[in-house]
């Protein structure tokens, strides 16, 4: 890159070859009827529902546990459990100001 | 401030400063005389938002390992007296896939915690997401 009056800017090499990271298994689609689900918990809808409700209760308990640790952990768990799957973005303002993470 | 808190963490700040030190050395070596300008982009490598040894519990639970990128610019100046100075500015970016990979369990301090949370998105009870962000510009 060169400006009209400035010196040439030399690009230094990256320290790693990883230019970006894949969201390898980001979910986003409720799959109540997936084969994997019913294979694992296929002993009937009652058992499956019990498992699901148990996990949901545990997740909420963990949420309360992490919310007690502080707003960052609380926000992460809340986003995971409640949100639409959209990215949580810390733009410069939110990166610098923790209050806006909440 | 998240940024300041991260920089207060030895793991995170050591990694950022280590990246900058490498680039300062590269730039100094590449600049034979006068004033030279360089751009830097480290790529992405993992770091810890907090240390395992003395964790800030909130960051340990809320972020843990994140991917770190440092980008910016460096100006190297050779002084008339033979001195060499480097100055510049940079931004830090972080990236984390907030999910529970199937069959992967956290093992803090070597204690494996088994759970089935990774099924919650499959069941429509949670949604995996990406945490990412970029700091404001910092000078050195």
The chain-level structural class of chain A is mainly alpha
Largest sheet of chain A: none
Please give the count of helices of chain B.
Answer: 3
Strand count of chain B:
6
Tertiary shape of chain B: elongated
Proportion in β-strands of chain A: 5-15%
Q: Which residues of chain B form runs of ≥5 with pLDDT under 50?
A: none
Radius of gyration of chain A: 22 Å
Our Rg estimate of chain B from Cα atoms comes to 19 Å
Helix content of chain B: 10-25%
Report the helical percentage of chain A: 40-55%
Largest sheet of chain B: 6 strands, antiparallel
Taken in chain order, the helices and strands of chain B follow as HHEEHEEEE
- Overall number of domains of chain B: 1
Helix/strand order of chain A, N-terminal first: EHHHEH
How far the N terminus sits from the C terminus of chain B, by CA atoms, comes to: 19 Å
Q: What is the percentage of strand-forming residues of chain B?
A: 25-35%
Number of helices of chain A: 4
Layout: helices, strands, pairs:
The complex is a heterodimer of chains A (102) and B (140).
Chain A: E1 9-11, H1 35-40, H2 45-67, H3 71-82, E2 88-90, H4 92-96
Chain B: H1 2-8, H2 10-30, E1 35-41, E2 45-48, H3 57-62, E3 65-78, E4 84-98, E5 129-134, E6 138-139
Antiparallel strand pairs in B: 1-3, 2-3, 3-4, 4-5, 4-6
Question: Can you walk through the features of this model?
Answer:
The complex is a heterodimer of chains A (102) and B (140). Chain A has 102 residues and is mainly alpha-helical. Chain A has four helices and two strands; from the N terminus they run E-H-H-H-E-H. In chain A, helix 2 runs antiparallel to helix 3. The longest helix of chain A is centred in the middle third of the chain and has 23 residues. Chain B is an alpha+beta fold and 140 residues long. Helices cover 24% and strands 34% of the residues of chain B. Chain B has three helices and six strands; from the N terminus they run H-H-E-E-H-E-E-E-E. In chain B, strand 3 and strand 4 form a beta hairpin. At the A-B interface, strand 1, helix 2, helix 3, strand 2 and helix 4 of A face helix 1, helix 2, strand 1, helix 3 and strand 3 of B. Strand 2 of chain A pairs parallel with strand 5 of chain B, so a sheet runs across the interface.
């Amino acid at each position: 890159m060169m400006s009209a009056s400035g010196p040439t800017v030399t690009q230094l090499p990256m320290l790693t070859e990883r230019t970006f990271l894949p969201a390898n298994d980001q979910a986003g689609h409720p799959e109540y009827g997936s084969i994997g689900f019913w294979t694992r918990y296929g002993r009937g809808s009652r058992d499956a529902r019990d498992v699901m409700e148990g996990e949901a209760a545990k997740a909420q308990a963990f949420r309360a546990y992490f919310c007690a640790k502080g707003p960052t952990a609380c926000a992460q768990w809340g986003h995971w459990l409640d949100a639409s799957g959209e990215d949580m973005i810390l733009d410069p303002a939110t990166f610098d100001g923790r209050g806006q993470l909440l | 401030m998240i940024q300041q808190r991260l920089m207060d963490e030895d793991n995170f700040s050591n990694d950022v400063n280590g990246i900058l030190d490498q680039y300062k050395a590269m730039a100094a070596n590449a600049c034979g005389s006068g004033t030279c300008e360089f751009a830097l982009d480290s790529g992405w490598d993992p770091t810890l938002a907090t240390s395992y040894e003395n964790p800030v519990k909130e960051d340990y639970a809320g972020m843990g390992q994140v991917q770190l990128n440092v980008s910016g610019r460096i100006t190297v100046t050779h002084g008339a007296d033979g001195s060499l100075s480097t100055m510049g500015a940079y931004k830090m970016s972080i990236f984390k896939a907030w999910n529970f990979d199937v069959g992967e369990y956290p093992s803090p301090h070597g204690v494996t915690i088994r759970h089935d949370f990774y099924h919650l998105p499959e069941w429509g009870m949670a949604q995996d997401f990406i945490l990412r962000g970029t700091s404001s510009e910092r000078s050195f």
